[in-house]
Amino acid sequence: MAEDQREQVEMANRASETEPARDGKQSFTRPVSLVTWTLATFDTTLFVLLGVLAVHASGDLADLLAGLNTLVGVAVFCYLWALFVLAVRWVHRRVPLDSAGVRTLVLHGTAAGSVAGVTFLLGLLAVALVSTLQSGGVRLQSVLLVLLIGVGVASVVGGVVGLLASLLDIAVYGLAGTLLPELGSERVTDPRRQ
Amino acid sequence: MAALPIRTLHVLAMAALVGGTTGLWYSYRSGTIATLAPARQFEWLFWGGVGVLVVTGVGNLGALGPPGPGTDWGRTLLVKLAVVVVLVGGSVVRTLLLARIGDRVNTLDDLPPALRRTLSQAYGATAAVLLGIVVLAEVLAHG
Lengths: 194, 143
Known about the structure:
- The complex is a heterodimer.
- Chain A is mainly α.
- Chain A is built from six helices and no strands.
- Chain A is globular and about 65 Å long.
- Chain B is 83% helix and 0% strand.
- Chains A and B meet through helix 1, helix 2, helix 3, helix 4 and helix 6 of A and helix 1, helix 2, helix 3 and helix 4 of B.
- Chain A: Keywords: Membrane, Transmembrane, Transmembrane helix.
């Protein structure tokens, strides 16, 4: 049993050697690595939490949430979460987090954020358009105008979010590295066998 | 109609996180677990749980209609949100620390005592912050 587990881990390790990023150990068995899943969820939850914190501090939270259907809110959050996972995975597959320069990582993060921002907007617009079409006619010029302005704004906002998120990711990854204990020559002991 | 399932999911996610982190803290402290594999598996669940907690937490707020930050309830909520930000920030460092340890040692090998101590302290701190959030949630729910 233990041999089987060891063999599986070794197979995963061998597969990860072809990945550009060192955190790709799980890539053989999972579509995303633990580091990607962690950083993407961290970025998403922090983005939402800071937004809620800011709106609550300004006293407008009740009004904002009153106009939002719970299931729609859950769906939007899941959509945002999935986009963050895809964006972080895209960056990590191209740039190794521990050896690439900050500039390269930030540029990739900004680009991924920009694309994710536009995709987020297009998804919301597609849903809004379907419900508008069902309720009545819609003018093509209005849709194009909203698309044009919206895509520009979404790419800038997404780029800024991507830039900040990648800076934060680099900072926490570096901090984790400084907290790694020295293994030294300390003997490995197992209390169960003592 | 969605309020009860959302609230139930919120409580279940919190129970999973408190139970998991407390179990790992005790296991690494006592030496019951000496490998990295259980912690690595738990981290996947942990971050899924954090996502569920945040989305259901906002859903709960929508159902409650929170008063402004000038009230006692509003101030407590402000503190709770700040502590959740601290939890998320601290946890990402813990998980990345774990991932970086995994780059240096085999996940199925027995960990050196220094690493076990570090993991025990990290999970202990996480469990303490989570319990603090539970207390703040109790205050918000019952005053």
